[in-house]
């Protein structure tokens, strides 16, 4: 089980998403535990101020170190030590690989930054890692924290209905996932590919692999520069005229087809 503690000045913002769908079921089944802590509860003045103007001047406000530190300490006192993560646009880019590493932790403390950021002294003293979910700016770290929790939760054993769903996701390899189809067999004059109806699992897997490569070539060729292929996959790529395109992408990188 993983325990998530979220430190925020807007705890109500997080209530609904964690009570829906897979996250709700994961909580009910005991795979994850989620707590929110209101940073304002640890403010030192009667107005519950958690931010102040930056020394040296400049735009915006900065989150004060005392309430943040006190909130972390209370969480540690109640639920033990955990990895403290600051949601920040300056952090390490969040990827599937990073989600997999975080899924190995037992306790994650997610600090939701606001305004122009947090006091550097808090970051230097308490923060183990900073994470960004993309090169853009949000009004706060709450939405980013929800993204991290959602991505990590689905990797916890027992959370997903199909045990190998996560292993075959987009980004489980450096390939986008193949196209998917369901009933009806014909819709809008478009038919489901015959291979998927054949019942031959080897044929289906080869078709899906090829479609993954084609989709990645079209949409995210940068990913293919990092991918490696087995000998049988190379033969399949050659047979279907994809090998040369993949090889040319990897020619200038350290990876080899």
From TrEMBL:
InterPro entries: Alpha/beta_knot_MTases (IPR029028), tRNA_m1G_MeTrfase_C_sf (IPR023148), tRNA_m1G_MeTrfase_TrmD (IPR002649), tRNA_m1G_MTases_N (IPR029026), tRNA_MeTrfase_TRMD/TRM10 (IPR016009). Keywords: Cytoplasm, Methyltransferase, S-adenosyl-L-methionine, Transferase, tRNA processing. GO terms for cellular component: cytosol. S-adenosyl-L-methionine binds at residues 113, 133-138. One of its GO terms (biological process) is tRNA N1-guanine methylation. The keyword Nucleotide-binding does not apply. It catalyses: guanosine(37) in tRNA + S-adenosyl-L-methionine = N(1)-methylguanosine(37) in tRNA + S-adenosyl-L-homocysteine + H(+). Residues 3-225 form the tRNA methyltransferase TRMD/TRM10-type domain. It is found in: Cytoplasm. Its EC number is 2.1.1.228. GO terms for molecular function: tRNA (guanine(37)-N1)-methyltransferase activity. Homodimer. PANTHER family: TRNA (GUANINE-N(1)-)-METHYLTRANSFERASE. Specifically methylates guanosine-37 in various tRNAs. Belongs to the RNA methyltransferase TrmD family. This is tRNA (guanine-N(1)-)-methyltransferase. It comes from Desulfopila aestuarii DSM 18488.
């Amino acid at each position: 089980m993983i325990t998530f503690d979220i430190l925020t000045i807007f705890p109500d913002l997080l209530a609904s998403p964690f009570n829906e769908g897979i996250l709700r079921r994961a909580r009910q089944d005991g795979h994850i535990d989620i707590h929110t802590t209101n940073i304002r509860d640890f403010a030192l003045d009667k107005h519950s101020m958690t931010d102040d103007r930056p020394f040296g001047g400049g735009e915006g406000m900065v989150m004060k170190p005392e309430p943040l530190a006190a909130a972390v300490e209370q969480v540690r006192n109640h639920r033990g030590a955990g990895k403290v993560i600051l949601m920040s646009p300056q952090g390490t880019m969040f990827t599937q690989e990073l989600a997999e590493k975080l899924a190995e932790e037992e306790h994650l403390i997610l600090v939701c930054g606001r305004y122009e950021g947090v006091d550097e002294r808090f970051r230097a003293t308490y923060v183990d890692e900073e994470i960004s979910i993309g090169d853009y700016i949000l009004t706060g770290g709450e939405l980013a924290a929800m993204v991290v929790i959602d991505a990590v939760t689905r990797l916890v054993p027992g959370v997903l209905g199909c045990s190998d769903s996560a292993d075959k996701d987009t980004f489980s390899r450096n390939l986008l996932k193949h196209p998917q189809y369901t009933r009806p067999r014909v819709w809008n004059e478009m038919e489901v590919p015959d291979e998927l109806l054949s019942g031959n699992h080897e044929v289906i897997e080869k078709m899906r692999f090829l479609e993954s490569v084609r989709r990645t070539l079209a949409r995210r060729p940068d990913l293919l520069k990092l991918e490696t292929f087995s000998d049988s996959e190379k033969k399949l790529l050659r047979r279907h005229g994809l090998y040369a395109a993949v090889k040319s992408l990897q020619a200038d990188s350290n990876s080899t087809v």
